[in-house]
Amino acid sequence: MPAHRFTNHLAGETSPYLLQHAHNPVDWRPWGEEALAKAKREGKPILLSIGYSACHWCHVMEHESFENEEIAALMNEHFVNVKVDREERPDLDHIYQTVAQMITGGGGWPLTMFLTPQQQPFFAGTYFPPEDRYGRPGFPRLLLAIARHFREQPEDILQSVEQITAALQRQNTPLAAPGELGDDLLRSAAERLAQVFDSLHGGFGTQPKFPNPMSLEFFLRYAQVSGEERYLRMVLLALEKMAWGGIYDQLGGGFHRYAVDSHWLVPHFEKMLYDNALLIKLYLDAFQLTSDPELRRVAVESLEYVCREMLDAASGAFYSTQDADSEGEEGKFYVWTPRQVAELLDDEERQLFTRFYDVTEQGNFEHGASILHRTLTVEQLGKLFRIPTEDAEAVLARARAKLFAARRRRVWPGRDEKALTAWNGLMISACARAGSLLDEPRYLEIALRALRFIRETMLRDGLLLRTYKEGRAKLNAYLDDYAYVVGALLDAYEATGDGDLLSLASQLNETMIAQFHDADAGGFFFTGKDHEPLIVRTKSASDQAIPSGSSVAAQNLLRFHALTGEERFRSLAEGVFRLYREQFLQNPFGFGNMLCALHLYLDTPRQIVIVGGRDDAAVRSMLEVVRQRYLPNRWLVCLDPADPNGARLPAALAGKGQVDGKPTAYVCHRFACSAPVHSAAALARLLD
Fold this sequence. Notes:
By secondary structure, the protein is of the alpha+beta class. The longest helix is centred in the last third of the chain and has 20 residues, at 567-586. It has 25 helices and 20 strands.
């Protein structure tokens, strides 16, 4: 291969995003002591650029500015240039995105920050074009202005950083507020979220529109606890509209990141592991509640997409993202023209497919291409073409298979093949739950293999690491990593009864408490006590694209309390709720998963203990009874007394054994346990 003209300090990194910039003429450096020391030594401001590999506008800014030698020369002359992958370093992204919100009222990626040599921010922005346009200053003009301001007006810089730093400290030191933790909090939050629900297209707000599975999950729970069916109807509307829209990959399964419009048609085409993990779980939960086969179909197709395209066959870990772009065009891999469709299908297939998925001559996307989305039901399609519904479905299935095979021959979007511990935890939970709910051993085995990867590769001296690629695991794990992996281990334990999984979950949960808990004010920091010092140690409970680590930690603590009876776990979780009570009371939109955790706290988990071999027909019937019921606040323990690797019952459930050598089930809730039962019908009566 030809030698690169430029090579900078990113060449030794593992992050695909950083490696994309390793041959820019910009003298990029990774975040670390060397870059920070250089800035202090030379008295230069730091130009911090944060992005990720699937970010479309990150690619645009690279091509326009970072590959431009004249712009690079300005950057190298006046700044110490630092590149950060926000997926590897969410701690830095959390801090500086917050600053961008303070300074500009908005944020996003690429994030462009200017810092003092002491890491203190004084100017923020996102994408800047190479010359003045879009109402934004050209990047070269901005660079010269910032450098001159830093050099000639240090007093202004000092005043700015002091104000910003003080505001950051205030935001990250919430104080517990008085007030009850009661059902009224759930009711108030549900009512306020319902006010911003789109009753026409589903979802929240207008555009751009994100799936927001955490708030929909809360609605699903609240519908059950309140008996108000309108919340269930809202969830089902959103799930249907997303599954019919262009945000869902109609050929390959899986969800794109978000839609730029209000009706889910035009997505930003990147696919993220975490979105699919969260949505798979949500669709499975809704299927469990409704038995709607369409919900099951979407969940299974999305699982198959992840297992086919986002799973590392060698390690068992899950990859992180797929790009929006291929061949330099966003969405090119996914869209179709009528001519492309006609070249692959016979006449009947073409007519039904183009009508069903709205492939037209004018198109609904760029260059006359069409994003596949559903416009009617299969039954309606059959009536329109005067054929039986099952024949219409068969024709569509043949057509999809042909187009899917042809699409695989296209130039693929790039894939970020690093494995992130937290995101793997989310996907492991989804696979474990799918394996159990659908009684599909393959999904459960995939979950267990990924857990082996975490145990063998991402756990070092009892501490988790954040990221892995090509044989290198590195960086201290964050609260999200611990919380999601503990949750995944608990989900896998419920699905298998393997005591080793529960033991590891307990170990990592204790490490999480020791590393992240704020013993003075309550709640959890985002970084561990052994983490490098930054300008602020952040503490947040609001969801972003993924559930907040604080809320998942609280859920885990409540699950451990249900298993062990140890009040300290419940007390730690309660401390989280009290710390953020006023925040999620005032603005529930960012606290969907915290509200789910609060629901668990108020309801307390229902403990279901089944004692007997999982291959026993009676035990399988009992497990099927549990699978058929949406019981979000339940702990399932299936203990095989003959299995030497099975867990002994935790203290809170001690004494629950087989009666007369027969498979036996118990249900415990709020300090009371049922008499033992021996049949699926009797267990069903206890759960209904």
